Amino acid sequence: MPITIKDIAKAAGVSHTTVSRALKGHAAISPQTTARIQALAEEMGYTPSAVAQSLLSQRTQTIGMIITTTADPFPVNIVGGVEEVAQAAGYSVFLSSSHNNPRQEMAVVETFHRRRVDAIIVSSSRLGSVYRSELDQIQIPIVLVNNQEEGEYLHSVAVDDVQGARLAVEHLLQLGHRRIGYVGAVNRPKSNRRRIVGYQAALEAAGIPIDPSLVVAPVEETDVDQGKKGVDYLLDANATAIFCYNDLTAIGALMECRRRNIAVPQQLSVMGFDDIEIATYVTPPLTTIHQPRSRLGKLAMQMVLDLLDGKSVQDKVLNCNLVTRQSTADLA
Amino acid sequence: MPITIKDIAKAAGVSHTTVSRALKGHAAISPQTTARIQALAEEMGYTPSAVAQSLLSQRTQTIGMIITTTADPFPVNIVGGVEEVAQAAGYSVFLSSSHNNPRQEMAVVETFHRRRVDAIIVSSSRLGSVYRSELDQIQIPIVLVNNQEEGEYLHSVAVDDVQGARLAVEHLLQLGHRRIGYVGAVNRPKSNRRRIVGYQAALEAAGIPIDPSLVVAPVEETDVDQGKKGVDYLLDANATAIFCYNDLTAIGALMECRRRNIAVPQQLSVMGFDDIEIATYVTPPLTTIHQPRSRLGKLAMQMVLDLLDGKSVQDKVLNCNLVTRQSTADLA
DNA sequence: TTGTACGCGTTATCAA
DNA sequence: TTGATAACGCGTACAA
What we know:
434 Repressor (Amino-terminal Domain), Rossmann fold, 3 domains, DNA-binding
C-alpha cells in the first residue's frame, strides 16, 4: 500500500489536514512545520493519490482516445499529437482500439465513461451520429478527428479533403496531363466523396470535361489491391496520370505498374494522399498530399482543453499540402 | 454530474446500499426490488464510477504503457498486443511517450504511480536499472519489453536477438555467400551486441573466420543514413551480402545501392531485421527477420495479469523467424 | 430482506 | 497556526 498523508501525519505528530496543507505550501502553515513535513514526505516516498483527488474534484485529468487500430500508422500519428499536448497540460491518455467495429466503439466509450475521463477524442469514427444521444448521457466533450460520417456532430477537427484533392489534380494538370484518373475507396464514404469533389473541381476549373470512365472504385479487400485493380481500369480508359485515394492505394498502383512493365513516372504519373512514412521509401518515391496528422492530434487536444476551460470553440478544417517526389512527371 | 447510486436510491425510495446490492444481483435482495432498481438505473443512465470503486478496492484495473515514440511503428505494434489482452481482461491502458529521454521516462513513471496504475509495461527502456530502486517505492509489477540495458531486472519479455541474427546469416550462407557484412546501430547497445553475437556464431558454425572489416557501425543521425554509409564501407570490404541491424538500416542500404547502380540482389544481397510493414513495399521487397511484435505485447500483458494474480512468472524470450522476399539471392 | 455506519485518500470549511 | 469534521461515490460488516 502506498504511503498516505495519514501515515505522514502520524510520523510527524500532526493532523492529516496539516500535512495536506504543508505539502502544497499553504500560507497558513508555519515555515518550519512545512519544511519538516515536506522533508518527511520526500523521505517516506509519498506520492499523492490521483484517485482520491479525482473523487473529490470530480475531475480525473484524463482523456480517452479511440482509434480504429494500432496497426494503421495514420491514427497512431494523431495519438502522438494528442499525447504531446495532453502530457504538457498534465493530462494522461487512455488509448483503446475499436477495430472499426461500432459495437466495440460503443463499449470503449462506456468504459471511458466509467473511468470518468474528462473528455473523449475519436479518430475516424464510424458512428459520429450515435454520439448525439450518448453525449446527453455522459455530458463530456467529445472531439472527432477526421470523422467518417456525414452530418454536423459535436466538435471536430478534420483535414480539408476537397482542397487536398484539388491540389493533387492541379499538380497533375500543371504537368500537362489531361486524362487524369481517380482510384477511390469504397469503405471511407465521406472522405472519398469529398476527394472526388476536389478532383472534379480542379478539372472543371481547367475547363476539362469530367469523364466518368476515369473515376473508378474497385471493390477489393485492401487498399493496395484496390490500387492494383484501379490501374487496370484506368489504363483501359487511357489515363496518363492517376490520383489515388491514399498512399497505400497508390503503392498498389505502383506494384501493378511494375508487374506490367509500365514505367512510373515516364509512362504513367501516380499520386497518393496522406504522406505516410512508407511513401518516402517506395520506388519511385511517391508524390502525395500531406496530411498534418500530428497537428490534427494537437489541435484536437487543444480543443478539449479549451472546452474543459469553458471556452467556446470552433470546428477546425486544416489544409493539406503537396509533397512532390518522383512518381509524377511531365506528360510525355 | 453523473448519476450516483444515491440518486437512484432517492428515486426508488430505498437506501443506497440496497441499490448497490441490487445492481450487482446480490442474493439477499428480493427479485422485485432488484428488477425495479436495475430498470431504474438503466433508465436514469447510471454508470458506476471506477474512481470511487478504485479508492475502495485499491485497484484501478489500469496499467501504464511507456514507449519511446508513436512515430516508430515498432513499439506501437507492441501496444496493440498489450491493449488487446488488457481490454479483454477489463483493464484500460494509459499510453505515454518517453521520447527516449530518461528524465521524461521517470516523469511518466511518477505520473503513472500518482494515478495508481496496477502495473507498468515499458518498451525499449533506456533505464532498466533505475527501476530497481524506484520499484521499492511503488511496489507494483513492472514488465520490460525488449529492454535496452544489460543486466537482470524485474520481469521481461524479449525477442531472441542472437537467434534472429543467426537465422539471418544462416540464410545468407545457404545462398553461398562467404563475405557477409554487418551494419550495426550505435544507439541500441544491447540488441546490437547480441545481433553481432548471433552473426559471429553463424559464421563460426560454418567454419568461416570473422573478418573485423566486415562489421561496421556508422555514426549517423538516422537508421536509414547508417544503412547508406554502411554499404559504402562494406563494398570496400568486398562483401557480397550484408545483414543490417534493422529494416530501416536495410532500406538505407537499398537506397544507396540504387544511387550507385548496384543491383540488389544480383550484385549484393541485403537483409534487414524486424519485418516492419514498409519492408513489403520497398523495391525489391526486403528479406528480413520477423519479430513477433504483437505477441510480445500480448505476453507482456499476460505476464502482468499473472503477477497481479499472485502467480509466479518466468521471463520470456521469443524466437524470430525468417521472411524470405526478394532482396537476397544466390551468390553470382 | 433492507438499512446504518464506516472507510478508502484527499481537500475544504469551520472552529479553536 | 492548527485540528476536527464532512464530503466525494462506492462496498461491506453489522444491525434491525
